[in-house]
Amino acid sequence: MEAKVQRDVQRVAADTAWTKLIVPDEAELDVVAGTVALWPHDADGECITEIGWMALPEFQGRGLAKQDVRTLLELARVDGRWRLIHAFPALSGSARRTPSRAGPAAPPGSPREAKRLPAFRVWGVFRA
Predict the structure, then answer these.
(1) Over the chain, what HEC string results?
(2) pLDDT digits over 10-60, tens only?
(3) Can you say how many angstroms the Cα of residue 63 is from the centroid of all Cα atoms in its chain?
(4) ∠ Cα 34 75 87 (to 5°)
(5) What is the rounded distance in angstroms from the CA atom of residue 100 to the CA atom of residue 77?
(6) Are the CB atoms for 99 and 51 separated by under 8 Å?
(7) CA 15, 68, 70: angle at the middle one, nearest 5?
(8) pTM, entire model
(9) CA 28 to chain centre
(10) Scanning 2, 34, 66, 128, which has its CA 20 to 30 A from the CA of 73?
(11) Which of 36, 60, 39 is nearest to 50 (CA)?
């Protein structure tokens, strides 16, 4: 775990990954409800971008992670370097799956849709 955290810190410092804190109230910046992160990921030899989120149990069910997933997807779209973003939410716990509905899925019948796994989402965040 320590090596993973060190790798994550290095990626954020190099701006090759993003980790954002979920802060439920701007008046209380020391209260953190969880995180939303975006990082490069190797999937079967292909480098993809993955998004993940975690909300502490006492903050789940309030829509905080869903809102911040949408915000991070919008930041990624504006940034322009992230193209397709994949999510692999846990298969249990409805609160964990909810943010995966925060953006559009691959269109039915598209090559991306055909490769989807259960509980898998792909978002295109192309610049306007």
Answers:
(1) CHHHHHHHHHHHHCCCCEEEEECCCCCCCCCCCEEEEEEEEEECCEEEEEEEEEECHHHCCCCHHHHHHHHHHHHHHHHCCCCEEEECCCCCCHHHHHHHHCCCCCCCCCHHHHCCCCCCEEEECCCC
(2) 999 999 999 999 999 989 999 999 999 999 888 888 888 999 999 999 999
(3) 14
(4) 60
(5) 17
(6) no
(7) 90
(8) 0.70
(9) 24
(10) 2
(11) 39
pLDDT digits (tens, 9 = 90+) for 92-108: 655 444 555 554 444 44
The 10 Å Cβ neighbour count of residue 36 is 25
Non-local CB neighbours of 66 within 8 Å, separated by 6+ positions:
98, 99, 101, 102
Type of residue numbered 10: Q
Structural domains in the chain plus CATH codes? 14-23+30-124 (3.40.630.30)
